[in-house]
Structures are given as C-alpha cells and as structure tokens.
Amino acid sequence: MRIKEITPQEVLNYTSILLEVQNIYSSITTYREKLNDKFKRIENYKRDLAKYQKLLQKYENKKKELLLQKEMVSENLASNKKRLVELMKREEEIARNQRSIESFNIEITTIRATISTISEELRDIEEQINDIEDRYIETKEKYESLKIEFQADERVLQEETKEVSSEIKKLEDIQKEKLSKIPLHIAQHFSNILQKKKGVAIVSVGLLSDPKKFKEEYHYCTGCNIVLPYVIVEKIKLKADIVQCPSCFRYLYHPSWFEETEE
Ligand SMILES: [Zn+2]
C-alpha cells in the first residue's frame, strides 16, 4: 500500500542522491583503509621494539648467568692453584721418602690437568660473555635506531591519522545530510546494502539485445547479472518507483537517465 505516489522527478533525484552517497561511501572506505595502514605501521613499530627489548633482556640474563658461572669456576681454579702451590712446598720433604714420591707425583699431575681443564672452561665462559656482549651491543643499536625512527614517524603518523579521521568525519556528515533528503526506509535499506555488498548498493541495468539470440530485449542487473522481470523493467523505464533487484536487492537505475541530464 503506497501512502504517497513517487514522481519521476523524485525517482531521478533519489537515484542521483543514492549514487552520490555510494561514491562518498567508497571514499570513506579508502580513507578507512589508509587509517588502518597507519595504525598497522604504529603497531609494527611497537611490536618490533618489544621484540628487541625482550632480546636485550634475554642477553642480560644470560650474561648474569655466565658471570656467576665464571665466578664459581674462577674460585675453583684459584683453590686448585693454591693446592698445587702447597704441594710444591712439600716437594723436598716428600722426596726424602721414596715410597710417597710416586703418589705425590700422581697428585701433582692430576692437579695440573685439572687446572688446565678449568682454565679452558674459564676461557670458554669468557668467550661466551664476549659473544653475548657483542650481541647485546648490536641489538641495542638496532633498538635505539628503531626507536628514533619510530619517534619521528609516530608524530607524522598521528598527525596524518588526525587529518584522515577528520576527513572521514566530514564525509560521513555529508553522507548523512544527503541521506536525509530521501525517504527514511530507502536511506536505511541503502546503508545496509552498502555494508553487505562491499559498497555497491546501486547499479545500472544492462541491456541484452542480440537479434540473433533473443526475440526481444532483456534487461539485467549489472550487480548480480540476473535477467530482470518485465514488470521491474517497465517500472524503471517509466521512472515509476525506486526499484530493487529481486535477487541481490541492489537499487537499480537506467544508464540513460544521467546521460540525458548531462546533455
Ligand atoms: Zn541484482
């Protein structure tokens, strides 16, 4: 039941508003993508910085662990060396006793071997400490330079984000204002379809006219390609109503409408 007849001029006006709104929606989508890119770049910086920080912490912990190990091994080395010195002091006294000189010599040899092994262990630990320190410095440099880069970029990114956001706000206001000029149910429905159909909620009808193939002309929805029923095509031709495709629910218009107005 229609409350109020819609005039052909209104059909034309509403359609052109819908097309404008669709264009604005597409611009808004592009701006939103830009905004997302900027957020992503900021997130990437934060993620990479956190990664470096974690690595630095890991190196610091490893270094602490190695220093502790070094201390223990050094103590062990010192006590073995001390033991050797003490034994050497008793060398002459032992030498007088033929029976104990053999076991004395074995003990000396063993301690020397132990000292050599511990010294090697110590050198290995020191090498590891050097390696960790090198890696720490390298990572720290990367971290610092990324931080500087981020600080410089962040300001620009935030500035740009603000600009893009205000641009989006402006466009949304224009969109709202334009939609307010058409009947509410169409405006709401149109907005829904824009969301659901990736920003394409109004399309022109296409003409299938191949005398060899078809006896008569057929019109189809260029949104979903379905051939449109005669009743709908007639309504469009007469500009009798704002018409939707029965299959994809996009709004339809005839491409000739706007060619005429431009001329
Ligand atoms: Zn369709």
Protein architecture, described:
The chain has 263 residues and is an alpha+beta fold. It has 2 domains: 27-179, Orthogonal Bundle (Helix Hairpins), CATH 1.10.287.1490; 201-263, no CATH class. The chain contains 6 helices and 4 strands, in the order ααααββαββα. A 4-stranded mixed beta sheet has the order 2-1-4-3. Helix 1 (8-89) runs antiparallel to helix 3. The longest helix has 82 residues, at 8-89. The structure holds zinc ion (ZN).
Oligomer: single chain
Silhouette: rod-shaped
And the CATH topology of the largest domain? Helix Hairpins
List low-confidence stretches: none
Q: Termini separation (Å)? A: 36 Å
Rg for CA atoms: 42 Å
Put simply, the count of helices is 6
CATH class of the largest domain: Mainly Alpha
Number of strands: 4
Q: List all distinct small molecules, including ions and cofactors, that are bound in this structure.
A: zinc ion
The total domain count is 2
CATH architecture call of the largest domain: Orthogonal Bundle
Residue fraction in strands: 5-15%
Q: Main β-sheet, in a few words? A: 4 strands, mixed
Tell me, rounded to a whole number, the average pLDDT.
92
Helix content: over 70%
